[in-house]
Amino acid sequence: MSSTSGSATTPPASNDTIVRSKGKSRTGLYAVIAVVVIIVVVLAAGYAAGWFKSSSSSTSCPSGATLDGAGSTLVAPLMIAWSLAYTTSTIDYSAVGSGAGITDITQKTVDFGASDAPLNPSQRAAIPSPGVLTIPESAGAAVPIYNLPGVAGHVNFNGNILAGIYMEKITMWNDPAIVALNPTVTLPNQAIIPVHRSDGSGTTFVFSSFLSLSNATWNTTYSHATTINWPAGELAEKGNSGITTTVQSTPYSIGYVDINYALTNGVAYGAVQNPSGNYVVANLTNIESAIKDKNPVFPAATGDWYNFSVLDAPRAHDYPIATFTYVFVYTDLGVAYGSTFTKADAENLVDFLSWIVGPTGQSYAAPLYYIPLSSAAVTFDTAAIDSVTYNGGTLPICVPS
Fold this sequence. Notes:
Shape: elongated
CATH architecture of the largest domain: 3-Layer(aba) Sandwich
Number of helices: 16
Radius of gyration: 21 Å
Helix content: 25-40%
Largest sheet: 8 strands, mixed
Order of helices and strands: EHHEHEHEHEEHHEHHEHEHEEHEHHHHEE
Structural class: alpha/beta
Mean pLDDT: 89
Strand order of the largest sheet: 3-2-4-12-5-9-7-8
Distance between the termini: 47 Å
CATH topology of the largest domain: D-Maltodextrin-Binding Protein, domain 2
Number of strands: 14
Strand content: 15-25%
């Protein structure tokens, strides 16, 4: 089959008074400190090149607040870039993984949660009244990364091979099944060292969802979730950054991360076979086209997103492991948090969310290897954010420009 590639750039009772913990976000920032350094460099270059618009407050906007978010490490580089660039409020984001982000928003210890996995049925049932909105904030893709000394180019994989590796049924790099996909590559006679996430992970959800679509044994044995009951003996690391670092330092290992982590850290990643039979090397162009070609129809923002997917888009050039990443926010912030969260805090939160999905916030996506939202997604998000209330009253939205 042909291989297609391109430029990498081209989820207490609702009326309880909630005491929201502050200051816990630093742990998450430390987990991605190397990525933060890269972000600062990219942002500096971006400002010099005029990529981004400046953020400035309007006198009609409420005075700034400190807003706490937590969750996805996949979106962490972009979220940290947003927090650095947004000057109207202070944004503290803790990159603790999607599973922890869902727990934090469920327990109301943060103002917003972030996840690459939508809420599953039990997580939706656990969300206290008044419930949350699911808001797509950006998009990306999971890629298989590896450390193969002496092997150049992109190794070809398909879902069956990746499932076989992570089920420990394929244990050697020169297994005939891998060799058959890579006839021009000399693969080493070395044991494969699989690396997976130790924490609840949206990237794991996306990756395991792809494996479930590709391999019936994987689907019945492991299925798809933010946490998988992995086979014994595999290496486990926290966060996309942990997977990346371990694969970089461990010859003959394989892992899965968001494309941002592969590209910003210079880690080799594989081409993945799509439904058309082509081996596609992920880049911004073919991830964006996959999402477009999948033609997603968003559920209601308050609805069930668990089976929503943009995996396995149908056209020849589409990368098959694309995903949205999401923000969760309570539908009524006054009812959710009580007096500890003022109306001004609520206004600042909806202002920030409106900013990140708008043109200024989305301008940070592509330089950091994320897919900007489509106009249809922005329209959906805008309506969802507009619906957020405070003790039943509407919230004016003031977006810094």
